[in-house]
Amino acid sequence: MARDGIDLSELDEFTDRLIQSSKEAGKTQKKFLRDQGTRLRRKTAQRARAEVPKVRVERPRYVREAGQYHKSIKRGKLHAKNGALRIRVYSGDPIAHLIEDGWTPKARDGSRGDAQDGKSVFEDAFEAFTPGYEKDAEEMIDEMIRKI
Known about the structure:
two-stranded antiparallel ribbon, two-stranded antiparallel sheet, 8 strands, 54% helix, rod-shaped
């Protein structure tokens, strides 16, 4: 190829490095998202412990252990949706939506009490987590580019 005056060996090496880095990038992305999901779960659980009190309920037909909401905060598995990798943090507690969105208590005699405001634990934790996530994502992308 040198007799034409054009040497493509460096271009071939660069394309090989790009192909190899794209394979490594998939693994790096998945690990990064799992780590960030775990960090968000920890922050969400920490905020839940600070804002939502542990209450034990014991009735003839219903028993609820104290701290069930706090224990139910989990990190989901990595999945792809619309071509993008995603991970979620959720609560498996059956009454988590009431804690998040609020509710109106009903007494045993059928009367209604004052509406209770929701705590918005997941939304607040996500908003507090977002700037750190964006910074970490930029650093990861810079590192991947430097490896190429």
